[in-house]
C-alpha cells in the first residue's frame, strides 16, 4: 500500500472553525462581487462596456508599469493567449497600446492609454460608491481595521499562492 498523497494529507489536517467561517465569508464575497449582474451594474455606473476579463487586465495594468503580455498573464494567473485576446480587444477600443520594450526592442509591452486610465478610474469609483453604501454604518475604526486585515490577508495569500512541490491540487 502506498503512502497517502500530499493532497490527501493536507485535506485531513484539522482546520479551526474560524478558518471555516472565513472561507465561507470569502466565498460569499467573491460570489457577490463576481456576479454578472453586479459587473453589468458597475459598468453601467462607470459608463464603460467591458467584460470582466478586460476589466481585470485594465485594473492590473493600472497598478503597475507597462509590461509584456506574458508577464501580465502570469500576474493574472491565466494563459498568455487569453491576455493576447483581451489586449487586442482593449487596443481596438483605445484603452491600451502596445509599444516596444526599451530593454528589448523585439518585445512589446502593454500600457494604458489616457482613455484606459480614465475607464479604470470610473469603474473603481463606481465600485467604491457601492462599497461605501454597504459600509456606511461602520465606524472609522472598524473600516481602518478591516482595511488593515484585508491587506494582511492579501499579502499572506500572495505569499502562499504557489502550490508547494509535491502537492498535486488535482489529486
Please explain how this structure is put together.
With 171 residues, the protein is mainly alpha-helical. The chain is 64% helix and 9% strand. It has eight helices and two strands. It has a two-stranded antiparallel sheet. Strand 1 and strand 2 (104-112) form a beta hairpin. Helix 3 (36-46) crosses helix 7 (114-134) and helix 4 packs across helix 6. The longest helix is centred in the last third of the chain and has 21 residues, at 114-134.
Could you give the topology of this structure?
Layout: H1 6-12, H2 17-34, H3 36-46, H4 52-62, H5 69-76, H6 80-92, E1 96-101, E2 104-112, H7 114-134, H8 140-159
Antiparallel strand pairs: 1-2
Q: Overall mean pLDDT score?
A: 87
Count of alpha and pi helical runs: 8
Question: In whole angstroms, how far apart are the ends?
Answer: 17 Å
Main sheet attributes: strand count, strand direction, barrel closure: 2 strands, antiparallel
What value does the Rg take, in angstroms?
20 Å
How does the overall form come out from the CA principal axes? globular
- Beta content comes to 5-15%
Structural class: mainly alpha
Provide the helix percentage.
55-70%
Low confidence ranges: none
